[in-house]
Amino acid sequence: AQSVAQPEDQVNVAEGNPLTVKCTYSVSGNPYLFWYVQYPNRGLQFLLKYITGDNLVKGSYGFEAEFNKSQTSFHLKKPSALVSDSALYFCAVRDPFSGNTPLVFGKGTRLSVIA
Amino acid sequence: DAGVTQSPTHLIKTRGQQVTLRCSPKSGHDTVSWYQQALGQGPQFIFQYYEEEERQRGNFPDRFSGHQFPNYSSELNVNALWLGDSALYLCASSSGQPTDTQYFGPGTRLTVL
């Protein structure tokens, strides 16, 4: 069965510093991987996805993520954090060999960017 | 272009009651998925509708049921509510392909007292 782990419940970073939010996955074959962001009392907003091809994926709001097959990881990164990036971040996976399966989400990582 | 919309925004019910939540998908999308997000947790898949049929179902009891209409909008019904059903209910729409992005609505916050 497919699964996602986000090992950090909370990440704190100073404004202007680079940020990383970690995600590891477990799925048979090559996964489809997604990052979403959730602001308070809001739904999930799509940031980026990896389907195939270049391991470095660029997304919305300056975010990027690197797919690493050997480490089964898909960490979210941003070179310079903004206070407005403070939110809850979810990594999700879908197994492409199991048909049109739903997304399986991690428990989320709360990012706090301190001015 | 309107995104995914959900109604109502908030809902308060008492134990034993039933509730209906509604979702309109993003224009051009024909597949609707429902998720339950409990406080402090990631979204959990309830079920997915395509061509007015339930295509997949997660590990939720039969108290959770749904429907999809010819215009692709969808309803989630929950019967015999209990306290544990209190959560944010999210609707997501897509074109149904495995590579497609699911776009989420703002959610309905259900509180069961």
Give a description of the structure.
The complex is a heterodimer of chains A (115) and B (113). By secondary structure, chain A is mainly beta. Chain A has strands at 3-5, 10-14, 19-21, 24-26, 32-38, 44-50, 56-58, 64-68, 73-78, 87-94, 104-105, 109-114. With 113 residues, chain B is an all-beta fold. In chain B, the strands form 2 sheets. In chain B, strands 2, 4, 5, 6, 9, 10 and 11 form a 7-stranded mixed sheet that branches. A 4-stranded antiparallel sheet of chain B has the order 1-3-8-7, with no helix packed on it. In chain B, strand 4 and strand 5 (44-50) form a beta hairpin. Chain A binds chain B through residues 32, 34, 36, 41-46, 49, 51, 90, 92, 94, 96, 99-108, and chain B through 4, 6, 31, 33, 35, 40-45, 48, 55-56, 58, 90, 92, 96-99, 101-107, 109.
Mean pLDDT of chain A: 93
| Uncertain runs of chain A | none
Structural class of chain A: mainly beta
Strand fraction of chain B:
over 45%
Tell me, briefly, the overall form of chain A. Answer: globular
Question: If you average the pLDDT of chain B, what whole number results?
Answer: 95
Summed up, the helix count of chain B is 0
Low-confidence regions of chain B: none
Features:
heterodimer; A: 115 residues; mainly beta; 6-stranded mixed beta sheet; 50% strand; globular; B: 113 residues; 4-stranded antiparallel beta sheet; 11 strands; 0% helix
At a glance:
The complex is a heterodimer of chains A (115) and B (113). Chain A has 115 residues and is mainly beta.
Protein topology:
The complex is a heterodimer of chains A (115) and B (113).
Chain A: E1 3-5, E2 10-14, E3 19-21, E4 24-26, E5 32-38, E6 44-50, E7 56-58, E8 64-68, E9 73-78, E10 87-94, E11 104-105, E12 109-114
Parallel strand pairs in A: 2-12
Antiparallel strand pairs in A: 1-4, 3-9, 5-6, 5-10, 7-8, 8-9, 10-11, 10-12
Chain B: E1 5-7, E2 10-13, E3 19-24, E4 31-37, E5 44-50, E6 53-57, E7 64-68, E8 74-78, E9 87-94, E10 103-104, E11 108-112
Parallel strand pairs in B: 2-11
Antiparallel strand pairs in B: 1-3, 3-8, 4-5, 4-9, 5-6, 7-8, 9-10, 9-11
